[in-house]
Design brief:
With 295 residues, this protein is mostly helical. It has one domain (13-287). It has twelve helices and no strands. Helix 2 (36-60) runs antiparallel to helix 3, helix 2 packs across helix 9 (208-231) and helix 3 (69-93) crosses helix 8 (178-199). The longest helix is centred in the N-terminal third of the chain and has 30 residues, at 3-32. The protein is globular. The chain starts with a helix and ends in a 13-residue tail after the last helix.
Length: 295
């Protein structure tokens, strides 16, 4: 009698974690843009990852992870992918609206979903997500307003996002949620030299510290911890397809926090993307991995 509710709870638990993570990371992205005039996208990424490393080091105690040579290699690649994803995404936000940048970045997880798909119904959800993305990206006369260098940065972030999914799942299976802390520490070491060279002493501006801590929590510490838990409970294909809702969160965050108003086509895009995510959720229950301990 209790098996179906428990099975439904197991199916919805990682989905709920992903929704919270996406809302958090897009809110943090909106807050991060306020730091750009002082330290640039490079310095903002550096401060975000450094403070997130400290927070996750204290909370998750990653030194308890038992790393082998093979698992260390996976964690290093995961951390570098995470750092590249953060850096390139913030570079794109300098000239590309938040909702459009997230839509372009999503090509990474979408590619993971397409590569791993096998059933016809999977392609239905992917097709809906693609329609939504095409509607989010202005392709007519409005496209002249898009900075294509910024768009290239967003696409590069998408490549890193795909690597983050694939290697994050492998690393998470080896060391659980502690992998998120290890990955952020490696990402900080990878990006910090770029931020220090670009921003210099401006990184020590006292007024930036509270904002940087807020961005670190909203955009890194909280969402990446939740995503690592979800990654160990979902197939890579399902995770990639569910992340199709990310552009919707980006567009809504841009509307509420940055006053980036949406057109009718963009609202239709959000509807398509949400339908794709709901469809993926409803058809994934038989493919979920069993829950695994974090340690």
């Amino acid at each position: 009698m209790t098996t179906p509710p428990r099975g439904l709870a197991c199916a919805l638990f990682p989905v709920g974690l992903l929704l919270i993570a996406m809302a958090s990371i897009q809110s943090g992205a909106s807050l991060a843009k306020s730091m750009f005039p002082i330290v640039g996208a490079q310095g903002t990424t550096t401060l975000r990852l450094i403070f997130a490393s400290v927070i996750m080091l204290l909370l998750l105690r990653p030194w308890r992870a038992k790393l082998t040579a093979k698992s260390l290699r996976t964690v290093v690649i995961y951390g570098m992918a995470l750092g590249g994803m953060n850096f390139l995404f913030y570079m794109s936000l300098r000239t590309v609206p938040l909702g459009i940048a997230v839509a372009l970045e999503f090509t990474g997880p979408l590619a993971v979903a397409i590569y791993a798909s096998r059933r016809a119904v999977d392609f239905l959800w992917i097709a809906l997500a693609v329609i939504g993305l095409l509607l989010l990206i202005p392709m007519s006369e409005a496209s002249s307003g898009i900075d294509w260098v910024g768009a290239a940065y967003a696409l590069g972030a998408g490549v890193c996002w795909a690597l983050y999914i694939l290697f994050g799942q492998k690393a998470g299976n080896d060391n659980g949620v502690q992998t998120a802390a290890l990955g952020v520490m490696i990402a900080a070491l990878f990006v910090a030299p770029i931020g220090i060279v670009h921003a210099g002493a401006a990184l020590l501006t006292p007024a930036l510290i509270p904002i940087a801590i807020g961005v670190a929590i909203l955009s890194t510490a909280l969402p990446y911890t939740l995503e690592m838990v979800a990654l160990t409970r979902l197939p890579a294909r399902t995770f990639g397809t569910l992340m199709s809702i990310e552009p919707a969160f980006g567009a809504l965050s841009g509307l509420f926090f940055l006053h980036e108003h949406l057109s009718l086509a963009q609202w239709l895009a959000i509807t398509c993307i949400i339908l794709a995510s709901v469809g993926a959720t409803l058809t994934m229950r038989n493919e979920l991995k069993p829950l695994v301990p974090a340690d």
